[in-house]
Amino acid sequence: MKGSSLDHLPRGVRRLLRRFRERLGDALGDNLVGIYFGGSIAFPGFVPDRVDLDFHVVVRHELQESEVAALRDMHRLLVGEYRYAEHLDGFYLPLSKAQLPDPPENLVGAGGEELWTSAADGAWALHREHIHRGAVLVLVGPDPAILSPPATWPEMARALDDERRFIEAHLDHYPFYCVLNLCRLVYTWGTKDVAISKVAAADWALEELPRQWHALIRSALRVYRTEDEEADLERIRDGLHSFYRYASRRIAAADREDRDG
Questions:
Q1: Are residues 212 and 228 in the same domain?
Q2: Best exposed site among 110, 145, 155, 204 by fewest CB in 10 Å?
Q3: Do residues 133 and 26 share a domain?
Q4: 4 assigned to some structural domain
Q5: Residue 32 lies in a domain
């Protein structure tokens, strides 16, 4: 099984991912098919302090209770030993479900040191598109594009709308994340390109969106890059709800254009 180079990643992340790979091999043995990381880690500008380390671990067969117990112990140990292990966030995905377009359910999910057994990947269409666009880091295993089918735009549109609703419900919980992800949603609805990072989408927004939003977006980028000051946080709090309404109108207009066209 092959893997991607980790040399471009921060040292602490490299150490964590190598141990993650090693301990997964011990816990799963021949049941392990591949370990795949997506999201921010697969794009330039990755800042490990501010984002999750999103993963899919593909397994040949449904996990047994003994394997789930071993994984629970593994995640707990990793969080105790490695700085970024609390950012691990992902799914253990049986191969039979990875091969289908339907959003997989009843998965073992992981977040930091916690494991649960009733997880669902509602963004599966977006994850598949990233895979087929090469926006994935392979720790070990075959090319994931041969494991899962490509996504259609209607599938991606449903997943994107779920993201918009998540943002709406969490505007006051993750303010800078919401600003950057709204930039990405506006970009994606307009271009049908989902394989873009939050940072790249924010850079696009600074070129394409009205100037009234530029200070807000720059503040969100500074917070993401851990260069923030109180003025940035205050600007985000004050402007976020208005920006959400603006972005929602842009998204709705793009959706109407798609339907009419």
A1: yes
A2: 145
A3: yes
A4: no
A5: yes
Helix, strand, coil: what percent of the chain each, to 5?
Answer: 60, 15, 30
- On whether both 165 and 64 belong to a single domain, the answer is no
Exposure class string for 113-152: b at 16+ Cβ within 10 A, else e: bebeeebebebbbbbbbbbbeebbbbbbbeebeebbeebe
The per-residue pLDDT string of the chain (261 residues; one tens digit each, 9 = 90 and over) reads 556 678 889 999 999 999 999 999 999 999 999 999 999 899 888 888 888 999 999 999 999 999 999 999 999 999 999 999 999 999 999 999 999 999 999 999 999 999 999 999 999 999 999 999 999 999 999 999 999 999 999 999 999 999 999 999 999 999 999 999 999 999 999 999 999 999 999 999 999 999 999 999 999 999 998 877 899 999 999 999 999 999 999 999 998 887 776
Residues 157 and 189 in one domain: yes
Give the total number of structural domains in the chain: 2
